[in-house]
Amino acid sequence: MSKSISDWLEEFTHYLEYEKRSSAKTLETYQRQLQHVFAKQLNISLDEIDSVFVRSELARAKLEKLKPASIALRLSCLRSFCQFLVKRGQLAANPAKLISAPKAEKRLPKNLDIDEVQSLLDKYNPEDDLAVRDNAMMELMYAAGLRLSELAGVNIPDLDRSSLTLRVTGKGGKQRIVPITKLSLDKIDSWLVCRARIMNQVEDTALFVSKQKKRISARYIRERMKQAGIKSGLTNHVHPHKLRHSFATHMLEGSQDLRAVQELLGHKNLSTTQIYTHLDFEHLAKVYDQTHPRAKKDK
C-alpha cells in the first residue's frame, strides 16, 4: 500500500528533525506552512504535485491576501518538501524549483541613534535586581550585536574575561567568538551579584535567569526590553532586533568594513549584511566624495 501525503509529511518532519537537525522553531514553521497547503487535499496523489499545483497554491495564498514575504516562505517550505520527495525517489523532479515567489518590498531595518542608545543603557535603577539584569542584557546585546535567541542562550562559561570575548551559539548551532566591551562585562558582574541572591545556590549555567531561577525566554526578554524603552522615555519602540540593527549600523558607520560586520553578526551571506549600507548611505556618500580621486570637490 502506497503512503499517503500525511505519511510523507510525517516522514519529512522526521527527516528535518533527525537528519537536518533543524530547530524546533524551524520544524514548527514547516509544519504550519505545509498544513496550509495540504489541509484540504490530503487525498492528493504524489503524481498531482506538479508545477500547476505549485502555482495554484501561490495563487491561493495571494487570494488569502498573504504578504509577498509570507508567500515566499510558503513556497520555500513546499520546495523543500518536494526536494525531499525527489531524494526519496517519489518525484522525478522538483516542480517548485524554477517557480519564483513574488518579490517582497525590501524594508530597511530601523535603528536607534547613538543618543537614544545612551539614554536606554544609562537609565536604570541599580537597586532593583531585575533592572540590573535587564540593563546588563541590553548592554551585552548592543556590545556584541546578538540575535535574541543568542542572548537568551548565553551561559556564564561563554564569557572570556581575559580577552573580553563571548562565545556565541548562533543559527544551526554554529559558534563564533565576538568581542565585548569592558562596560558590558562590568554590568554583567553587577548582575552576577544579584543573580547569586536570586539563585540561592541553585546550580544553572544560564547567565540571564528569572526570579523562578530559570533561564529567561525570548518572549520575556522582548517584553522587558519594551518596558525598559518606555521607562527611558524613548518614542521609538524598543525590541531586541532593533538593538542588533543599531549595533550593525553604528559599527558600519564607524568602520566601513562590511566583511567585519558580517562576521560579528554571524551572517552566512554578505548580502544579508549589505542591507545596512542603505541605512548609512549618506555617510558613505560623504566618505566617497572625500576620498575617491575622481569625486573630490574643489573647496
UniProtKB/TrEMBL annotation:
Subcellular location: Cytoplasm
Residues annotated as catalytic: 147, 171, 241, 244, 267, 276 (o-(3'-phospho-dna)-tyrosine intermediate)
One Pfam family named in its UniProt record: Phage_int_SAM_1
Domain Tyr recombinase residues, every copy: 107-289
Domain Core-binding (CB): 3-86
Gene3D superfamilies: 1.10.150.130, Intergrase catalytic core
Record-linked PROSITE patterns: CB, TYR_RECOMBINASE
Swiss-Prot/TrEMBL keywords: Cell cycle, Cell division, Chromosome partition, Cytoplasm, DNA integration, DNA recombination, DNA-binding
Keyword Hydrolase: no
Role according to the record: Site-specific tyrosine recombinase, which acts by catalyzing the cutting and rejoining of the recombining DNA molecules. The XerC-XerD complex is essential to convert dimers of the bacterial chromosome into monomers to permit their segregation at cell division. It also contributes to the segregational stability of plasmids.
NCBIfam families: PRK00283.1 (NF001399), recomb_XerC (TIGR02224)
Family according to the record: Belongs to the 'phage' integrase family. XerC subfamily.
Annotated protein name in UniProt: Tyrosine recombinase XerC
Gene: xerC
